[in-house]
Amino acid sequence: MKPQSDSPDNRVRVLEFIVLAHVGLLLVGASWAFGGAAGWARTLIVGWGSLSLPLVLFAVRRHAARGQSLSQALLWLCPFAAFALLVLLSSFNPSFSARTFGTQILLAHTGAAHPAWPSTVLPATTREHLWLFAAIYLSGFNLVLAIRRRAVLRTLLLIAVGNAVILSVFGTFQKLTSTGLYFGAIAAPNSRFFATFVYGNHWAAYVVLLLAACVGMLFYYVRRNADGETSRFPLMLGVVSLLLMAITPLLAGSRAGTLLVVGLIGIGLVQLTLRIRRRRRLLSGSTAWPLTGLALCVAGVAGGAIYLGRNAVQERWQDTEEQWRTGLLHERLSLYADTWHLARERPWFGWGLGSFATTLQLIRPRPIEPNRQYEHSYVDAHSDWLQSLAEVGFVGTILLILSVLGPLLSTRAWKFAGVLPAYLLGGCGLILLYAGVEFPFANPAVMIAFWICFFSAIQYVRLSDETRPGP
Predict the structure, then answer these.
(1) Residues in contact with 107: Cβ distance below 8 Å, sequence separation at least 6, in sequence order
(2) What confidence score (pLDDT) does residue 69 get?
(3) Phi first, then psi: what are they for 162, rounded to 5°?
């Protein structure tokens, strides 16, 4: 008889723990390392995230040893593998080359050796971007391969939400008392930083994903606690956590992020209102008092958030007026038009992953001021969707879309989601919409949170389907 420590169930639990620790440390570490915005932080994320590959191989070997089919999961990897191959091929077909002008070495567009094949501007930069994306994507994908219990997924989400709450408290006090990151220890590159994130809009995207997870966990716990026999302390703690996170986009001065939070919380309030009405109808009681109390709580929280963030609100209002007066909206639309022009120049495979800052200078050759405001930055297109079309073309963008649609449609998660995965997928959907007018996926911490929420939802649905009774 085999020792108990070598039993299949124990090996499954060990793998679950390893993947949980790996993904959890990746998320927490990236969020505290400036969201991955610093070069050294990206190096650490790539290094730690690269451990996902041997974990993938180990999980596949474990499934094969137990005679379990991996055809569905491996099929989901096909779009990612094709995307990685496309980007890797482009790095061997550069379209720019170094030229010496006086004492300066500049990049010149000389054309690719094989114009019909994928190409890129800077091969080394393209490989770095691909490595970062692959490390993050495979880390999230391991949740599908290794996690066999929904409780483990909920534990991961609790870790992620708890970390976001700590960052929210940290960022709130920092915003009220300091003018720099880590309470002034590090100078902020712009005034709209929050917590450890150097860009408030990136923090907003990050916190929206974790807010969605928090709301889903709250509704899950409410359903589990419907009989009132267990302690209500976790529910109260969850509500406080939700409120602490919800006010932060306003403090960070993120207009779009505030709207996303209002929309997400609004959906949760509508669901909560309907739940209260159904419950009170079953008990033949009035809904007036519960709904009045809920309205007062919402009004109090909204008022408190506006009061705490009054300086940020006033500043952003003045910025909005100035932008309308100076035509910055026209500038943003012009940037989108130029990005689309780049995409049309190479519609199939694009100019290369990570090439936008260089290729845009083909259209806008004028120099960029060193002390520009971030709204005038041409390092990013301020639209991840348009930048994707410009960098990896329609082929690469479609492969990225398929990497999301494949698991979503084959598991029918959109139809049999359940409350927790539904909110996780809803948060991911909001960020995908947000990516149309901003660049949240330029931040590694946002990417990590996105793929963790997405694959947690997918695996949660799969595990729920396994335990669902038959007809």
Answers:
(1) 96, 97, 98, 99, 121, 122, 358
(2) 66
(3) -60, -40
Alpha-carbon distance 174 to 198, whole Å?
13
Q: In which band, very low, low, confident or very high, does the pLDDT at 159 lie, cut at 50, 70 and 90?
A: very high
What is the CB neighbour count within 10 angstroms for residue 73? 20
Query: Residues near 303 by Cβ (< 8 Å), separated by ≥ 6?
Result: none
Q: How far apart are CA 354 and CA 128, in angstroms?
A: 9
Structure tokens at 457: 């939802």
Type of residue numbered 258: T
Return d(Cα 247, Cα 238) in angstroms, integer: 15
| pLDDT digits 0-9 by tens, 41-99 | 999 999 999 999 999 988 888 777 676 667 778 889 999 999 999 999 999 999 887 66
